[in-house]
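Intended use. Records like the one below are meant for learning the mapping from a protein sequence to its folded structure. Do not use them to infer anything beyond what is encoded.
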Amino acid sequence: MKRPETWRVLRLLLLPLVLPWAEPLDAGQIVGSIDLPAPAPQRRSYRGAQYRGRLAPQKQAAADSTKTRSLYDDVVVSAHPLSFIAAVDPLPEPPQMEQYDAQFRPRVLPITVNTRVVFVNRDPYYHNVFSFSPTQDFDIGRKPTGEEVGQMFPMAGQVDVFCDIHPQMSGTIVVLDTPYFTQPDSVGGFVLDGLPAGQYALRIFHPKHETPEQQIDVDEGTPVRLQINIAR
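Structure written out for the chain above:
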């Protein structure tokens, strides 16, 4: 008479040992590669050159100009659930968008809604950060070296940011209403992990190239493989 009860207790004790083995099959994956067109050569010019020249060390400016960026640093890949609603939390640590060498770094910053971004001036001269984007209209004012200012982003969308002192400066904050996003590696490869089975809209963001979204069906334990070519 007591054997069923004993078996029930044994099953409860064994459950934690069984679940970790089942975990890899609980989620799907999108694995892809993106091809970007080669950028057109551009000459870097500053309207505020004399202001910058008075205050910025020439050695530092020369050294910083040799640093290279990947073409794929400006790409964001996001999967937006269509068949279910996903909980979207702010990023646990506020990301930074620095002003350094008269540039925004990173130039493209992906975040989730209700995330606070910290703007930091790393240059030895003043910067300003502002946006007139419909998603988020703000102006933090002109800030000296080392000044940090936080800004909350409660709405999903694209927020283009600028500096009113250095008009060549521009950056983009991509505010996402999905927890499933990533950025490619230096050769365009990307992996979106931990996707519950279902239907998704896959979106590729780049500030200079528009790419139509794709509808993707994700199954448990079966990676979806994609090759995405972005035209100029």
